[in-house]
Predict the 3D structure of the following.
Amino acid sequence: MSQNRRDFLKTVAAIGTSAGALSALSPNKVKAKSPENLSEERMGVLVDATVCIGCRKCEWACRGAHDIENGNIQDYADEKVFETNRRPDYDNLTIVNRYESSDEKLSNVKLQCMHCDHPACVSACIVGAISKKKNGSVVWDTDMCIGCRYCMVACPFQIPAFEYHKALDPKIVKCDFCDERTMEGKLPACTAICPVEALTYGKREDLLIEAKRRFKNNPDRYYQHIFGEHEIGGTSWLYIADKDLAGTVFPKLDNRTAPGVSESIQHGLFAYFVPPVAVYALLGGIMWLTKDKKKTEGK
Amino acid sequence: MKVTIKILLLLFICSLSVSAQIQSLAKHAQMNIDCKSCHVCDTPTKADPCLILCPRYKLEVVRHSPDEGPDHIIIDKIKVEKDLYKPVQFSHRLHSEMSLMSGGCSSCHHFNPPGNIVECSECHEPNRARTDLSKPDLKGAYHRQCMDCHYSWDAKVECADCHELNSSETESVRLEAMPSKSHPKVKEPEKIVYETGSDEGDLVTFFHNEHISLFNLECTDCHSNESCAQCHSQKEKVERPILADAHENCSACHDTEDDCTSCHMEMERAPFNHFKSSGFSLKKYHSDVSCISCHTAGGGFTGLNKNCISCHNFEDEDFDHGVTGLTLDDIHIENECADCHTETVYSKVSCDTCHDEDITYPASLPGTKK
Amino acid sequence: MEHPHKPTPLTKKFFTPWVIVLAAIALNGILFLLARFVFGIGAVTNLDNQYPWGIWIGLDVAAGVALAAGGFTTAAIGHIMHNDKYESIIRPALLTALLGYTFVAVSVMVDLGRWYYIWHPIIMWNGNSALFEVGICVMIYLTVLYIEFLPIVTERFIGRVNLPGILSRFNKLVNTFLIKLDKGLDKTMFIFIIAGVVLSCLHQSSLGTLMIIAGPKMHPLWQTPILPLLFLLSAIAVGFPMVIMESLTASRSFGLKPETEVLNSLSRFIAPLLGIYLIAKIGDMVIRETFVYLSELNSTTILFGIEVVIGVIVPLRMFMSPAVRESTKGLYIASMLVIFGIVMNRFNNFITAYNPPYALDSYMPSIGEISVTLGFIAIEILLYRLFVKIFPVISIPAKKSLSKTKFAIRGAAK
């Protein structure tokens, strides 16, 4: 009987130690580690929802730039699509949704990957296929991808799409900030075509200045908040509108980086492999001690 | 010698530039504009005018009348390799007419310096890839000019409403034939009944038609600060904004300080009737006459009596009696007015000055009635 | 002290009516599995861009890993702490863990869109990813489990190698190899046993870290930074109930006498372990004040209630009672409840709690997904049955009487 109790105490001790190792990594203590140093030169897009007219030319251009069948540009004037709340998908990396409420003016908001400064998908990707580039874009290497879809689970904006309909070689797809085009010095396809320049492409820090300038000069036109300036640690795509977009167009997010908590736990668990090795040593010690004891008892 | 020439030349150039500066300074000075509206530094020179970057918010804009501007403008500044659309034909006159009801010229020609008209392309770059993000590129600027209003009025604006496809077979609409050269006649309301909630009388009945037809008011006399969306709205009905001073538009003509009850009543009022209010019917002969041609005394509409001579001066020989509907015959036309109209009330006629009792008006007429 | 029980390959016939039912379920699952590989994930599952993970991850993988925890908890108590009396349950637990983890790996592969790249994490590392950590740990642990199982294989075949036909000339050679392998393994086994426990602790907890990155997409009743701790504690708590459940099921199925004594003493640990888990879970809820969400009654809170009350509190109370612990029926029901609670917990964490921001309707597993999940469970049970017939896994009582066994255990006590 007493042996049982002693065994149990030992078990508790073992569990306690491993649990202690876990609880020691209280996430507030460990500062979120960014996957790489963010470049000051990183680019972004300022989306001014008060300007957008919902012409969906960006959708057409985006498809064209990504070798997706895009049809006739005139067909995009069809406003029936606004009846449903659409989401980016494998065949449409960006979409414009119309948000209408009884008391407010309608507004059109273009949605695509936000290209977070601290992307959850980059942190989550099991093979490290996704990366945040110096120019701000969050891109990925399809050849590495194993199709686990953890990036989709992680993304706070629910952006990455998956080609569920394919049995072979299904891909994760999302806006890549027109990486190929920008490398050639061209503008992202959507920002190039936008007739009203609701999308302004530029250095992220310049865009923040510009957004605040617009707030100052047209205080009645805007809800004075740049969505994406601080949300989940900042995004490359920044949104201004005549109303608060958080809670309607976007989820309500706080300013902590998306992968912050998870990464600090992860790094705490594996801090230089000390915790695992310590547990190993501890268990080894217990094993050796009990074995020794057994022998002496046996004699 | 050479040196003297050089010095002289230098002096000459200097004086030229100085005089030029003084000249332009004089022009600016006349306009009573704060230098800092356009210049950053204290002493701008021609070489370095240190202008504030566009847009210049404090700039004052001189208004022109719609007649001074062009009727139409062809917008063809944006050229790309493969133009999908033909140049846009913009009905400038229509827009400038309507703009008078709201922001005026500056609602489009923003930050326009006084005097001359600056083209969009002078500030807005044709290239979208650029370093100065503070203003949209030319394409964006053009579209925003149109769409900021047109889209907020009707979200179903389509590209084809302004742009004709280059590939389209149909001949381009001739500018003169454009239906929108002038704004189509506005269907104005007959009357509007305001529920004011005032103690003086809840209802104010406003006869819009009277103010136009009877009092000859221009639209812009009252509608000077309107939003276009008031009429052009995507929504069924846009509530008029409540004026800070509800009497703002009325007080120019009506005494809104002391005389409340002539507008504020407990019930809807009837349309204006000159006979009812004054006992003098305008029906026959005065229906086309504007109020102020009789009510000449500024401000007041009282003080006239029914006597014709209180307005009319019949001493003139050339009074054509025919306007009354009765053309006098050759005999009677020689008479003095007072021969028949013995009293100053001209509707009364007495024939006994010349005739026996058996001849009376209107049984016998001194001429032919129409 | 002699082992009162000796692991022996069972001789009972393989096919029973239940086995045939299971085989049918397995076949059905395999058919849907074929469809998944021929027509793609979209054709078989209800997964979409809003719900990228369904029950194949939530149940097959997450719950599968948790239920295979018996392997490392019994290894810890039996091998590391040298409680020899638990020897008889270590092998069945090991086999369950082995099969469990194998099927976890298979399930992952089925769920992977690009399954033929499943090996990528071995050479493409992302230390920030909780999933990478889980993947690598599971891969290594699976290897460790196979190594731990090797002695059972050698034990079965040493002296009994009988290769067919022309290969029979190698019989002796293979036999010698097996003996050497067995000896080598015997000397180094402790390394693997400890490694197995460490690896289990790591990935059981990292499995909890998985959903943390979903942040506000996860319902606050479950989303907490101590998720890894809760996952580890609950995995440890479910280990023994799983072993008890299996042992009782196996005894019944093979017509053996249940090892009541061993199971009874094992069950003593369960209440404290469950208690620690419950304290952590409730304590976290109190500290983060998430209990406010319980005031509203909806499917989410109901599922939370079922998970905590039926899955943790009720069995906790049951395991505290000696009467329950001493009755086979009580043990079985209580163990099943714990297992149910943990499965519910994993299901809730991965599916109920996951509320993607733009989803119009919520995820319901498709018939295909359910079929595959059930199919895997059926195959696992069938393989277990097959393995215990081939390999010496389950201990059957030696010729000595049961009372003697009792005495032996008491004798060990001080």
In short: The longest helix of chain B spans residues 2-30. The mean pLDDT of chain B is 74. Residues 305-370 of chain B form one domain. The first strand of chain B starts at residue 72 and ends at 75.
